Amino acid sequence: MATSTGLEPLVETQISVVTNDGRLFVGTLRGFDQSSNVVLSDCQERVFDTDKGVEQVVLGLYVIRGDNLAVVGEVDEEIDSRIDLSNIRAAPLKPVVH
């Protein structure tokens, strides 16, 4: 589980979050609390598909409950901006099994 010391350096940076139910979100970390609930601005969900490529669903300001976080990581914005998501074919992420 993420702790305040683990998330603090990521505030105001672009992060990627994989949730326990297998969803992938990318956005700017605006804040978090003691339960590791996170607030993302400019958030998009990236939905993977084996035929259509990656669909980006614009969500805007979004809150993800801390008990649903599986993985949180920093995004290299320069590399991420060069990826053509429409050409990526991948099966949807599966739920995380603990």
TrEMBL record:
GO terms for biological process: mRNA splicing, via spliceosome. SUPFAM superfamilies: Sm-like ribonucleoproteins. It comes from the Eukaryota. GO terms for cellular component: precatalytic spliceosome; U4/U6 x U5 tri-snRNP complex; U6 snRNP. Belongs to the snRNP Sm proteins family. Component of the precatalytic spliceosome (spliceosome B complex). Component of the U4/U6-U5 tri-snRNP complex, a building block of the precatalytic spliceosome (spliceosome B complex). The U4/U6-U5 tri-snRNP complex is composed of the U4, U6 and U5 snRNAs and at least PRPF3, PRPF4, PRPF6, PRPF8, PRPF31, SNRNP200, TXNL4A, SNRNP40, SNRPB, SNRPD1, SNRPD2, SNRPD3, SNRPE, SNRPF, SNRPG, DDX23, CD2BP2, PPIH, SNU13, EFTUD2, SART1 and USP39, plus LSM2, LSM3, LSM4, LSM5, LSM6, LSM7 and LSM8. LSm subunits form a heteromer with a doughnut shape. This is U6 snRNA-associated Sm-like protein LSm8.
